Amino acid sequence: MGQVLHKRATTTHEIRNKIRQEQGTTNSIAKKYNIAYHTAKKWQSRDSVEDKPMGNKRANATLSVDEDWLICEVRKLTWLPLDDLWLLLNPMFPKLSRSALHRCLQYYGISKKPKELQQKPQRSKFKSYAIGYLHIDITDFWLGKKKWSLFVAIDRETKFTYAEIFSKKTMDNAVKFLENTYQFFPYKIHTILTDNGLQFSYRALQEALKPDNVHPFDKLCEQHNTEHRLTKFAHPWTNGQVEKMNHIIKSATLKLFHYETIDDYSKHLAKFLNYYNFGKKLKSLRFKSPHDIILQKYQDEPDLFLQNPVYYCRGLNN
Predict the structure, then answer these.
(1) Which domains occur in the chain, in start order?
(2) N or C: the chain end with fewer CB closer than 10 Å?
């Protein structure tokens, strides 16, 4: 049977037994077994060869056993957080500090609330829509000494992604990007969600500064029977899908590689998006690629499509 010894033990159970049976002086025993004088003296006087627990017998020596019992009972009855429990017990135990209370709870194994009593945060499911709900956003990056803007669009359901680089984030570039987005996706786009930037909407302007005409981005959406939705002010997480996609693109390109020119980056970006859309198996899609989901949707709802996505796949013949 294995012996349980503390990590700095210099003797085993067998040696301790021999020390107890030795008749010589403590100095001679220490030299014989190559141990310290106090170690030899300790095992000469011990009745057992097992290690004894060192330190205080209780976590907090300022409290009696009855007081410890009362603290434990209050803890088990209420399961209050540490600060609230300390405030509750402080009138009864004025000398009880917060750290002493924590040590006491740890000593009796009740410092953490049981898992069966912990309330899991309620997370609402992401609302499901038919394919064609796009999240669009703009992210900036530096290449050399020039600042560029990356326009990104991602479908909420299929995760199919389109991105394009522009020198500036203007209304005209936003409209051009949207036109290219309509041509890129093989199915109808019924809803677009953007932030409140001037590239997408006049909503952020004061009433006196708002022009009378319709925003060019909204005008193009109306032409394609697309609903343009805007996020709440100071709520960027509402458009979190495309924000996450911005991070994925930058992590796979700009943060890993060096590009001499913007053309080099544009070519590499196109290769990465082809891999992401047609080859990468996503956990959120149950380990299918975005194009696999599009093919599946085409079998179920062909009326939503403008063209057959089977011939849309990138490959050796495209």
Answers:
(1) 13-45 (no CATH), 65-115 (no CATH), 133-312 (3.30.420.10)
(2) N
CA dist 37 and 42 (Å) reads: 9
Token pair listed for 40: 């030899």
CA distances (Å), origin 53, targets 10, 21, 57, 259: 16, 24, 8, 63
Q: At what angle do helices 290-300 and 262-278 cross, to 10 degrees?
A: 50
What residue type is 225 in one-letter code? N
Q: Are 101 and 88 in contact (CB under 8 A)?
A: no
Averaged pLDDT in 10-residue chunks for the chain of 318 residues: 64 85 86 87 83 61 82 91 90 88 89 81 69 95 93 95 95 96 95 93 88 93 95 82 94 92 95 93 91 93 90 57
> Cα–Cα distance between 37 and 142 in angstroms, integer?
70
Minimal CA–CA distance to 282: which of 188, 186, 160? 160
Check if the beta carbon of residue 142 is closer than 8 Å to that of residue 265.
no
186/105 Cα distance (integer angstroms)? 61
What does the alpha-carbon distance between residue 73 and residue 92 come to, in Å, rounded to a whole number? 14
